[in-house]
Amino acid sequence: MNVRLLKKAAPDGAAAAAPPGGKPAAPALEAPRREATFLSRLFRNKLAAVSGIYLVLLCIGAIFADQLTPYDPLQGNLRERMQPIGAPGHFLGTDEQGRDIWARIIFGARMSLTAALAPVAAGTLIGGALGIVSGYFGGRVETAIMRMLDVFYAFPAVLFAIALAAIIGTGLFTMILCMTLVFIPPIARVAMTAAKKVAHMEYVEAAKTSGAGPLSIIFRHVLRNVFSPILVYASTLLGVSMLMASGLSFLGLGVSPPAPEWGFMLNSLKDVIFLKPLITFVPGFFIFITSLAFNLLGDGIRDALNER
Amino acid sequence: MEKAILQVRNLSKTYRVGDGWPKGRAKLLHAVSDVSFDVGERKTLGVVGESGCGKSTTGRLIMRLENPDRGQILFMGGDFLALRGRRLKRARKEIQMVFQDPYSTLNPQMTIVDNVRYPLLVHGVPPREAREQALDMLERVGISRRLAVQYPDGLSGGQRQRVAIARALVLRPSFVIADEPVSALDKSIQAQVLNLLEELKENFALSMMFISHDLSVIEYISDYVMVMYLGKVVEYGPTAEVYDKPLHPYTQALIQASPSLSRGRKSLIGVIQGEIPSPLDPPSGCRFRTRCPYATARCAAEEPAPTPVGGDRTVACFLHPDSDSAGRVRTLG
User: Which of A34, A287, B42, B175 is the most exposed place for a label (fewest CB within 10 A)?
Assistant: First the structure.
């Protein structure tokens, strides 16, 4: 190896003679290998891996819900109401209207997962864009955007949901809209902080001196450097989002009967909690473990991104 | 002097610092005050001075990273400050900058070659061709193809600055501003990078403005030197002459105070007394008077203007008689 270093004295003279602290010469000859190992780093974390698998299975189940149960989640057989867990034909029991609970869970997963994921996704896109623009331009742009968002920051989510429901009616869309608006300010704040740091880096100044316009600089220089902190923060919101969606549905501010959304199921089942407590726990249990899975996966994403 | 590629006249920049409104007034930081100079074609102007003297700000103003409050910048004969939009973008191809901090000058989330080819992409060069040109330039600064496809995190400071130089040159500019490009590097690496710059200046017929606080580096690389103090130009002239016979007391003190193995030193002045005044509240008259052993009452009352003293030299000090202009003879106060 030493002989090879000496022979390469001319072009890589600086590289060979003054090697970067502790780094051996061999890796300099390999192609970059950063992106491919994100997943392997992620799955080294067992909890994150299990959570990830659970969520994937849940999503698949939600998509193929009609394959997974013969029962109609919306229409019940009143003669079979309030069957306990493990009852023949209804392994998770039936609710107060005779609807099979497993059917409602698996069909309800469509709504609950959408209600949890969509606001985080939309909030990240919109909040991220607003935050990056604020952080990059600073000054009056930043002040204008941030003060505008402060208004939304101050609003409690439930109050917001009630107000929105009064204006545009209840429903899944209203709930998603409300939660998106609630998530935008904190995401924007994180994005702004990250973008500010990047905006003062010399490589951004160098890009400006090359004649690049702000749009080009933001897309090609800023974005990839703020991607990680924003994504990490957004992943922490997934668990919260799940709980918030369920909470709003429980309060009746989301979907309407007979929709099988999990939070809403808690609402309808709460009246029979003293009659058949175990059945009422089922949707709550799914809310709990799904939210937990989002949290653990989010932790795993954060660790995998930071390890690099 | 022969033809000048850059002509700067009366450049000034003042920053407002602190809260404007609680006490009703913000403080003014006089970063650059009435600076004028020329850079000749294919020449290197060294700009030297203590930290905070305004040399970096001057470079940034010329690059239009910030807007001057007053003054004129003529680049390649045209009014550089008047350019906007597409014409400014095109003009930027001719004037590029190398920055000081090797560790923030490259985008860590882009490969080395992508960092270098970005300016070409900005100016519409097709991606594949841009990549080839970038790789070619990188070879010229001593970064092999194999290294170029890596991310910058493995590079040393010296290598990073080489990449930064490649990036500055990839658009084939005529003029490069180097803002303390070697200040963050070890001495031995400084020498390598400086030699590289000398070579590139020759190969690419570059004119250069080299900013540094290190007198020996400036002596090595510059044809002309401009000494700045608290935002003002105090002396200007061909490097060898200024170093051999400095005229301004500040320049004399700087040279006296700097370690040198080869230069013969004249014991004209001792170590500079006192602390550098704040640019928020510069001394009246000559800004150096608070630390100048020759200061007189006149120095507090009037500000000396940079005055030609023959042989392409300029000094801003009442000690030096005006030998060129008609009719005005300055005497010692």
Answer: A34
Which residues of chain A have a CB within 8 Å of the CB of B109? Answer: 224-225
Alpha-carbon span B91 to B85, nearest angstrom = 10
Do the beta carbons of residue A121 and residue A278 sit within 8 Å? no
Residues 6+ apart with CB under 8 A from B320: B247, B307, B309, B330
Partner residues linked to A184 by β-bridges? none
Which residues in chain A are contacts of B101 at CB distance < 8 A? Answer: 202
pTM assigned to the model: 0.82
CA–CA gap between residue B49 and residue B246 (Å, rounded):
14
Whether residue B156 and residue A19 make contact (CB cut-off 8 A), yes or no, is yes
- Taking the CA atoms of A290, A291, A296 and A302 in sequence, report the sign of the dihedral they define: positive
pLDDT in tens, A187-244: 999 999 999 999 999 999 999 999 999 999 999 999 999 998 898 889 889 888 988 8
Query: Residue B84's closest chain A neighbor by CA?
Result: A211
Q: Chain A contact for B195, CB < 8 A?
A: no
**Residue A16: pLDDT over 60:** no
Q: What is the Cα–Cα distance from B333 to B318, expressed in whole angstroms?
A: 8
A205 with B167: Cβ contact below 8 A: no
Q: How far apart, in whole angstroms, are the C-alpha atoms of residue B105 and residue B127?
A: 22
pLDDT tens readout for residues B257-282: 776 655 555 554 456 677 788 888 88
Helical segments of B96-186, H only: 112-122, 127-140, 145-148, 157-169
**Residue A55 is encoded by which pair of tokens?**
């969520």
How many A/B residue pairs have CB atoms within 8 Å? 106
How far lies A232's CA from each of A22, A118, A246, B267, in Å? 30, 17, 23, 62
Contacts of A11 in chain B (CB under 8 A): 139, 142-144
Cα separation values, B195 from A127, B48, B202, Å? 48, 19, 11
Phi, psi (rounded to 5 degrees) for B13: -145, 125
What local confidence, expressed as pLDDT, does residue A69 receive?
Answer: 81
Task: Tell me the pairing of strands B175-179 and B95-98.
Answer: parallel
Pairing relationship of beta strands B314-315 and B95-98 according to DSSP bridges: unpaired
Candidate from B142, B164, B168 with C-beta closest to A13:
B142
Answer for the pair B66, B13: CB distance below 8 angstroms, yes or no: yes
Query: Is B154 in contact with A27 (Cβ distance < 8 A)?
Result: yes
